[in-house]
Automatic annotation (TrEMBL):
The record marks 24 as: Deprotonates C-terminal active site Cys. GO terms for cellular component: cytosol. GO terms for molecular function: protein-disulfide reductase activity. The record marks 31-32 as: Contributes to redox potential value. It comes from Streptomyces palmae. This is Thioredoxin.
């Protein structure tokens, strides 16, 4: 599956949709971003059930600012509307595959329970 260009117009609807959503925050001038792009595109082909989106931080500075993206590439993984991972750095193919597998295997009911417990305890804002 091809990657989806994410903008302020379609970002929220995309991340709120059920299932796995991966987001690559990148810019055309960024060497590590260009090196990560083929790895990301291959993963998109291998995982047609997931949405693979790309946010061009130069074209969408408000999205980059909203998520405090200060280093690119930054990969974000969202499942069922819950951010599971958000870290800067270009990943090698195997590391990206491992992250996807772990995200797919998570018990989302348990993840939501833990978030609720942390919120009640004042640990999450």
């Amino acid at each position: 599956m091809a990657t989806l260009t994410l903008t302020a117009d379609n970002f929220q609807a995309t991340v709120d949709s059920p299932g796995l959503v991966l987001i690559d925050f990148w810019a055309g001038w960024c060497g590590p971003c260009r090196a990560f792009a083929p790895v990301y595109d291959k993963a998109a082909e291998r995982h047609p059930d997931a949405v693979f989106g790309k946010v061009d931080t130069e074209a969408q500075p408000e999205l980059a600012a909203a998520f405090q993206i200060s280093s690119i590439p930054t990969l974000m993984i969202v499942r069922d509307g819950v951010v599971l991972y958000a870290q800067p750095g270009a990943l090698p193919e195997q590391a990206l595959e491992e992250l996807i597998t772990k995200a797919e295997e998570l018990d989302m009911d348990e993840v939501r329970r833990r978030i609720a417990q942390q919120t009640e305890a004042g640990e999450v804002s």
